[in-house]
């Protein structure tokens, strides 16, 4: 409907310009159309302003006031032209009304610009992505202003300045039209080009800008005709005075709809016409100067000076565009690098993800096969019982722990090694090049993970099962998938062995190490690969052995030496703890008797079996079978789990003591051992945990040892200090009152034959 009205109005202007019914009638129709369009703008502004609020109201009120002044000026103009017959009266009261419009229009444009309420997340135009945006705005504004100034100067302003007006007031009024129009047009163009109006108001701005430009064109024609002393202004020249107010009326009628919440998230295309708009006036200037040169009326000095300035500004703007493009390319490159990093790294821990790890492992295997690279080691790490952390602290706490674990793993390897998170609580480590003692690296990782982690203000212990693979260079057709499968298999073998251990992969037809199966296959006999070693317990005064502790060792068929805590935990988990304790007790009594060494033997028994009839039967049976005096056997209660019933435990200890066997409390000061347990259980001996004798504060350690030794002396309980490795530690426990000790300083665990030789040589 609006387009049809514009077309009909434009057609009437064209037809009326031919003055088929005479010039007087054409002037009456022309002035009537101008006044009607101006009044339409006033009415539309008032009606819509009553229905809207805030910025939408005030810019319409200002435009309506401007159009009111313009319409009053048109009434006066029509009186002079049609009734009074003055031709083109200037200056006159009509000029007051006409020139009031640019003032109110400029204020309305600024109010419209302040209506901008764009969310921060909405995309900006390309020029706004760079640090040069402010300079670009200034340069584009100067280019537009300079170009329009040249056009205005050529069309009317130059003629006005050069003309000799009848007086200063006439000259000032004549030049006020093009200058005021230039200011308003430049502001409207800048608002359009630089997107300074919120998107719902874009239609209002565009229609208003078209109307302002139309008025400016007719104003320029009017100023030119006044400057040359013309007596009349043809209807065709007044087309801008008819169509301009009409477009302004349409601008006042358009009301933006409610903006959807997801508008900001929709893709915003580049408005290329907005990018090109600053250069349209430059193109017009170039065409104008070309026409002037061809016509032989070359540009004057003002046009040349301002034109050269515009050319310089355009060159500066292009240089700035090159800098902008360079910055954009850099940001695109950085964005690609970031996307690449995200594609190949775990977002939680920052470690390599499964894809990157597989790629590096493939490359390492290929280079190793081609002989272009050194050996490699693959370690598969899985956190034990990680689900309990998630259940206790939630997934947020689990994420904190996983990130901390990743940092610990990184600290255990070299810079060039790869640590990856494969998913969940699974990690993988690739060591390339010369790797000294891969088992030492695994031990370092185990030790690092055993230090408690802080999760939401709580210290959380972490254990991990690990599978370690060292590929054989001579093995043909080895692949990365095969290595990962072996590492995964070894890791799960560690899980079955009792967790918190490292299993080194060895090719074996029997599968991964499985101690419970080996124990069952033995049928009460000695499992394959199972043996005892003994560590001496010495008298501190002369460091002579007074006892030995029997320690279990197991080597699987594939040659894997499984740690005692691993296979013992596996046996306990399989319900074979009692069979293992009976096996160790029987084997220790047999070997100490066969060796003919007159020393007391210590044998470990889990606290959960204290009070079980099978334990007492096993002790009595072993003593009778090998003829070992009961006083030479000490049963050590190992509290890997708490004593289930202290009263029943105390009764069981007394029954063992009735047999002549002494009972010791192992690792006192660690685990579940406490003064309450010492008070409740009538033990004959305690073994101080190494943490009480090898700490970092010797003075406090000595004071604590003295207190415990003194307490045990009052209770008539003997004390053995464990974990003594240095002369300083031996001196510390001696000064604390200990008389016996155990540790690497006095001997490593070994077979009884080796222990017997060292004992004889010492004697």
UniProtKB/TrEMBL annotation:
Q: Domain of life of the organism in this record?
A: Bacteria
Which terms are listed as keywords in the entry? Membrane, Transmembrane, Transmembrane helix
Q: Does the keyword Transmembrane apply?
A: yes
User: What is the protein name given in its UniProt record?
Assistant: Diguanylate cyclase/phosphodiesterase
| Record-linked InterPro entries | Biofilm_reg_signaling, EAL_dom, EAL_sf, GGDEF_dom, Nucleotide_cyclase, Rev_trsase/Diguanyl_cyclase
Species of origin: Amycolatopsis mediterranei (strain S699) (Nocardia mediterranei)
**Pfam families documented for this protein:** EAL, GGDEF
| Residue ranges of domain EAL in the record | 512-763
Q: Where is the GGDEF domain?
A: 374-507
Q: Which residues cross the membrane?
A: 33-49, 61-80, 92-112, 133-156, 168-193, 205-227, 239-255, 276-298, 304-323
């Amino acid at each position: 409907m609006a387009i049809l009205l514009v077309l009909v109005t434009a057609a009437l202007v064209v037809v009326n310009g031919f003055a088929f019914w005479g010039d007087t009638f054409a002037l009456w129709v022309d002035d009537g159309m101008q006044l009607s369009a101006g009044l339409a703008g006033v009415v539309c502004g008032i009606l819509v302003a009553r229905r809207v609020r805030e910025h939408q109201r005030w810019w319409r009120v200002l435009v309506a006031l401007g159009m009111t002044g313009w319409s009053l000026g048109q009434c006066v103009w029509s009186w002079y032209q049609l009734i009074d017959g003055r031709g083109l009266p200037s200056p006159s009261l009509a000029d007051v009304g006409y020139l009031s419009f640019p003032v109110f229009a400029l204020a309305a444009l600024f109010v419209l610009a302040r209506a901008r309420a764009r969310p921060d997340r909405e995309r900006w135009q390309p020029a706004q992505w760079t640090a040069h945006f402010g300079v670009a705005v200034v340069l584009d504004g100067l280019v537009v202003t300079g170009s329009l100034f040249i056009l205005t100067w050529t069309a009317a302003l130059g003629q006005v300045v050069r003309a000799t007006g009848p007086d200063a007031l006439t000259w000032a009024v004549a030049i006020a039209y093009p200058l005021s129009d230039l200011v308003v047009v430049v502001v409207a163009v800048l608002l359009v080009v630089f997107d300074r109006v919120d998107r719902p108001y874009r239609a209002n701005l565009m229609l208003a800008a078209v109307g302002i430009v139309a008025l400016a064109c007719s104003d320029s024609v009017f100023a030119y005709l006044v400057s040359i002393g013309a007596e009349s202004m043809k209807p065709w020249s007044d087309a801008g005075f008819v169509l301009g107010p009409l477009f302004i009326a349409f601008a006042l009628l358009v009301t933006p709809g409610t903006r959807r919440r997801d508008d900001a998230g929709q893709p915003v295309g580049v408005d290329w016409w907005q990018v090109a708009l600053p250069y349209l006036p430059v193109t017009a200037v170039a065409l104008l100067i070309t026409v002037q040169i061809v016509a032989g009326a070359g540009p004057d000095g003002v046009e040349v000076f301002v034109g050269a300035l515009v050319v310089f500004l355009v060159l500066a703007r292009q240089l700035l565009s090159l800098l902008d493009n360079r910055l954009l390319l850099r940001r695109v490159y950085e964005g690609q690098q970031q996307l690449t990093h995200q594609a190949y790294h775990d977002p939680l821990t920052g470690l390599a993800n499964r894809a990157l790890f597989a790629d590096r492992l493939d490359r390492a295997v290929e280079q190793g096969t081609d002989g272009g690279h050194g050996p490699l080691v693959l370690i598969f790490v899985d956190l034990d019982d990680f689900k309990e952390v998630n259940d206790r602290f939630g997934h947020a706490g689990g994420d904190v722990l996983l990130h901390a674990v990743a940092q610990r793993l990184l600290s255990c390897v070299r810079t060039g090694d790869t640590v990856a998170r494969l998913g969940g609580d699974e990690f993988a480590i690739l060591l390339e090049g010369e790797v000294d003692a891969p088992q030492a690296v695994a031990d370092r990782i185990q030790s690092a993970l055993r230090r408690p982690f802080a999760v939401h203000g709580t210290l959380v212990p972490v254990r991990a099962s690990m599978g370690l693979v060292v590929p054989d260079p001579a093995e043909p057709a080895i692949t990365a998938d095969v290595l990962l499968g072996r590492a995964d298999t070894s890791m799960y073998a560690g899980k079955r062995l009792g967790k918190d251990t490292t299993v080194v992969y060895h090719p074996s037809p029997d599968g991964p190490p499985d101690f419970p199966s080996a124990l069952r296959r033995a049928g009460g006999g000695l499992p394959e690969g199972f043996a005892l070693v003994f560590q001496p317990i010495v008298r501190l005064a002369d460091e002579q052995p007074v006892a030995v502790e029997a320690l279990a060792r197991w080597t699987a068929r594939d040659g894997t030496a499984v740690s005692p805590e691993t296979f013992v935990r596996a046996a306990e988990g399989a319900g074979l703890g009692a069979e293992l304790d009976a096996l160790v007790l029987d084997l220790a009594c047999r070997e100490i008797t066969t060796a003919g060494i007159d020393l007391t033997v210590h044998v470990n028994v889990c606290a959960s079996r204290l009070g079980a009839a099978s334990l007492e039967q096993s002790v009595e049976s072993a003593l009778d079978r090998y003829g070992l005096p009961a006083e030479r056997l000490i049963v050590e209660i190992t509290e890997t789990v708490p004593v289930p019933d202290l009263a029943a435990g105390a009764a069981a200890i007394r029954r063992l003591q009735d047999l002549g066997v002494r009972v010791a409390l192992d690792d006192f000061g660690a685990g579940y051992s406490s003064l309450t347990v010492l008070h409740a259980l009538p033990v004959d001996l305690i073994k101080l945990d190494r943490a009480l004798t090898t700490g970092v504060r010797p003075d406090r350690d000595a004071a604590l040892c003295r207190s415990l030794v003194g307490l045990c002396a009052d209770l008539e309980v003997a004390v053995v200090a464990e974990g003594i490795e240095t002369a300083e530690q031996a001196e510390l426990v001696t000064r604390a009152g200990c008389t016996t000790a155990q540790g690497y300083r006095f001997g490593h665990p070994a077979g009884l034959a080796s222990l017997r030789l060292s004992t004889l040589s010492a004697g």
